[in-house]
Amino acid sequence: MSWTAAILTLFPEMFPGPLGQSLAGRALDADLWRCETHDLRSFGLGRHKTVDDTPCGGGAGMVMRPDVVDAALASVSRNDGASCVYLTPRGRPLTQADIRRYTAGSGVTLLCGRYEGVDERVLEARSVEQVSIGDYVLSGGETAALVLLDACVRLLPGVMGSAESGVEESFSDGLLEYPHYTRPAEWNGRAVPDVLLSGNHAAIARWRREQSERVTRERRPDLWAAHLSNTTHSSVQEG
Ligand SMILES: Nc1cc(-c2ccc3ccn(Cc4ccccn4)c3c2)[nH]n1
Question: Is the pTM of this model over 0.90?
Answer without folding.
Answer: yes
